[in-house]
Records
---
Amino acid sequence: MTLALRLTELEKTFPLKGGLFGGPRGHVHAVNPTSLEVRQGETLGIVGESGCGKSTLARMLVGLLPPTSGAIEIEGEPLSRADPAAFGRKIQYVFQDPISSLNPRKTIRQIMEAPLKHLHKMGAEQRAARISEIFAAVNLREEFLERYPHEFSGGQAQRIGIARALAAQARILILDEPVSALDVSVQAQVLNLLADLKTEFGLTYLFISHDLAVVEAVSDRVAVLYFGSVVELGPAERIFARPHHPYTKLLADSAPVVGRPLTAPEAKGTELPNPIDPPSGCAFHARCPRASEKCRQVTPELFDMGDGTQAACYHPVNTE
Ligand SMILES: Nc1ncnc2c1ncn2[C@@H]1O[C@H](COP(=O)(O)OP(=O)(O)OP(=O)(O)O)[C@@H](O)[C@H]1O
């Protein structure tokens, strides 16, 4: 099995300014030490409520944020932030809001050319050929190349965002809520396009979303994130149909409708814990109907559930 991506104990804390003697007042624990493997050609879904660390994780993976500790390996090689071009050739980010992520003063051709020039040092002729090829692959007309980002609809702009990521010739794409800002009718078109491109270019996807139904539909495996930690990991067809972590169950029970955002209102309280002062033990214990004294004291690691899934829980459900 070839690995596209391996994260080892990857962690991100943000210091809060304003402490005594110029030091930090504390730290926001955005992503707790996380280890995860993504297989070549796989779509790994990452779901979780707002504030659980999805974007911070994604930003570390594409080099937009330095990790506090831990390591990232791509295709067996450690990533060095000292070489951003090598980073960009291997892994690219597709943003949620396609229009505002494209430079408004540049034509689409200029936007598309940048990665080919800077990451691949391609000459003009080679660039033009490559851009035509990618534009055809994402079903956009070549005449669009001379226009500016604001001239496009959300769906077209997202195709351009995807085309730009493909221009870097990276084989791993981080798709951060790639269809959340689009009309429902356009969402399906973009999801179908992503599926086609994956086969055509042999891509690996990390698909980040708070929309459970979309993640279940597009992913091979899903990681459920709660308060900066993976609490359950398993095959997409099983993880919501037969969840083991009480938090995953809560999400699955409360978001049965396509397109409905992820919230877990039926929990005991809807508040996430304070990321500056994380609770001891399992971060979900205060909201969990099954919590015991052990849960309040000791943080559970990911345990094998015997059916291809893992859950960080001492009292998992659906185990019979
Ligand atoms: N630059 C920053 N400085 C301080 N805290 C931050 C910073 N960026 C993120 N955080 C905090 O880190 C935690 C995780 O945030 P993150 O944006 O990664 O979550 P998310 O799951 O992507 O949320 P959303 O779906 O709302 O984008 C939150 O508590 C957030 O307030």
Note: Residues 14, 28, 30, 48, 50-56, 210, 275 surround adenosine-5'-triphosphate (CB under 6 Å).
---
Amino acid sequence: MSSKANKNRESQKAIVNVAVAVIHHKDQYLLGFRDAAQHQGNRYEFVGGKIDNNESGEQAVIREVAEETGIAIQDNTIVKLGRLHHDYGDKQVSLQVYKIELTTAQYEQHKHCQYGLEGQALVWVNKRDLLTEQYPLPAANKTILEWLSVPTTIAITYPLTHFKTHSDPRSAWLQYHQENLASKSWVYMRVKDAMSEDIVGRLMRQRPDISVIVSHDADYSFLMSKDLVVENKHTSEQIVAHHLTHTTLMQWFDSIQDSSASTQLISHTHPLFVSCHDAASINAANHLASTRLQQQLPPVIGAFLSPILMTQTHPHAEPLGWETWSSLAQLADMPIIGLGGLSPAMIDQALTYGGISVAGIRQFY
Ligand SMILES: Nc1nc2c([nH]c(=O)n2[C@H]2C[C@H](O)[C@@H](COP(=O)(O)OP(=O)(O)OP(=O)(O)O)O2)c(=O)[nH]1
């Protein structure tokens, strides 16, 4: 084989490790433009570049942002959003993606810069335009946009048993959530009752403003009915993701280890959230995330990692505490959502410890 062919083979096999910086100030996000001559050229990109040998992803992201934009981010909170592998055919990349919020002073200083330090065009775009793909990005970034769609707070419904003293618990559950859920919130419908589809469906019809996460194995096909168009939106569109409990996630993982068992089919239609409590379940979640990317299925967009603190709903579960939670969060290839004894105001603490959102029941409505 010629040395050129050998070289081609080598370059196809080698995975390029890249640090990617999602830099934003509130809803304004910074994009660069990739020159036509570059790999994946003539597209927008997040600031970033190759991770050097002996450099961590975080060190690389600080260096790349300084080299490309002159913005010094070493004192900002740098949160790992996720890691993903993408095969472009001519090149394989492993992206380590970080989210960095600039201070108002940093943003004011750089918001009018039209060119970066390497002569590349820079542009600030609003989040809605970014997520609706008004700015073409490399294909691998599709997953990053899905990760960014996850809001900083997620409300979780009370279990049906919370209303067990009421004469009609299902009506009480429905009325409580209909009246109390915050406008336009993302809500994880955790009813903990096998026969809950009808009340979840009714809540969705009564509150067309909310986006919902539902159990991956519940049957919501009735929401596809032609009649269920509320405020110009089809009710089924309210389902933004499916959810896998810790138990289901581990069952899926066990089934892929055991070649004689049939692997559980998990939603081909929606992105996924999973629940994790320890390193083993995060490992399973990482396998699930990479399997879905390989199969070009909607990605895993978040993992609820719990319990951080003592909770009233799970009084016997040993809390992880912030330090352990943080080291587990670092292992995950997807955005981490803090859960267990938190309030929405604890988002800054969650960011500092490596999470991107907080979730909960009582204080989140
Ligand atoms: N910076 C950046 N790179 C991205 C993004 N999405 C994505 O797939 N990539 C890919 C494109 C490139 O193959 C690689 C980035 O490496 P790079 O910026 O050092 O690549 P380059 O072409 O400038 O480097 P070179 O080979 O010319 O030295 O990661 C993104 O949002 N930002």
Note: The chain has a mean pLDDT of 92.
